[in-house]
């Protein structure tokens, strides 16, 4: 590393992007370059990010050229460029263009062939069957299908098989996922979705009972040889409840579950996965099993729960892909409390008071962090500090409005 200068290039501008930039700055003291369409609060006025606005993914050829040109413009002896996508569409773009991007960047991702099998939920569930990963009872619904008996009762969960394509056809009242109470409501919602241009399948799933605290998130890093080297399981305490934010984690405590972790480790190594993977999982009290909803082919939006708990995500990439170290497997066992909302919101809205007490204990032990609470970035930075204050106030408002 003596003559190597790390240059992270991040595609995106949300809290995911900021958390990755923070990991790189904490580990290596470097400023990340980030690309996005417009400036948004999560990455604005930051001392650890050089944000380049005005770049969109709609013109993929131009976007690719911009990334390649950047590497040429910023090139200097010993500089190594590492690229990360911070939303699904960006990660998929990077994977689809991995071969050409690899001429300028370290690209810690799987290949397109495997991506195509994993991104659409119906094909992902077929792979789950093959490797004995439990998932909710599922029915694949296509445009023009009759509303039939799905093999499980209402209420059901309805969501797009391809979420990237789904959000390219935005409409008023659109939701990331719908809880549907009956057949009439199901027809009304699917008619609305397909009338706005989305053509792919919809996933209908058995509704697993339980509040946010039944959710789990698992983040893993697999090295360039397809071996899992880091696993961090999070017990979700609260998710956002705004229509488009449903499923975004707001508070997490890390926990250890050897059986769950072993099962997913075997899965990832069996399919020769490389890079970061992020699984959404829910505990089903009806049969005491953990059921997986999807895999994200990148670090998750809440990735600072991983870095904060002692597993700096930047170091895994650099040590594996730049230094070519043989990494030891690190499985997070000690509990750690992460949040992106004020503490009192967690204490108020988490229904399981044992979990609330656990949060308070971890706070008292200094085992707590929030993604935006980077002292280096906030010190003397009034604009950044003001944004974080307003962000927190807005989160209070949103939870009081949407979380019942």
Automatic annotation (TrEMBL):
Residues 125-322 form the ATP-grasp domain. InterPro entries: ATP-grasp. It comes from the Bacteria. Keywords: ATP-binding, Ligase, Nucleotide-binding. One of its GO terms (molecular function) is ligase activity. This is Carboxylate--amine ligase. It comes from Intestinibacter bartlettii.
